[in-house]
Design a protein that fits this description.
mainly alpha; 2 strands
Length: about 80
């Protein structure tokens, strides 16, 4: 899985100005919300893709299989 969500550092560099090389965070709350939204959206897309496919009516995944696939589809190490 390729993580297309920018790291916190990249997002800060692209969104907030610097003054003598030091980042000026004018609104940390706004940044944190935007960063969280990016990762939630990426996680939801991965969750949708990871749900076991339904083949025939006799091939329906169990709740446990779906739960495992969805809860493990977006590893925490992608949040940087």
């Amino acid at each position: 899985m390729e993580n297309k969500v920018p790291t916190a550092t990249k997002l800060i560099r692209n969104k907030f100005p610097t003054h003598d090389g030091i980042f000026v965070l004018r609104n940390i709350e706004e940044f944190m919300i935007e960063f969280a939204k990016l990762h939630v959206n990426a996680a939801l897309k991965e969750a949708l893709e990871s749900i076991p496919c339904l083949g025939s009516s006799s091939d329906i995944p169990t709740y446990k299989e779906v739960e495992e696939a969805v809860l493990n589809c977006y590893p925490e190490n992608l949040i940087q």
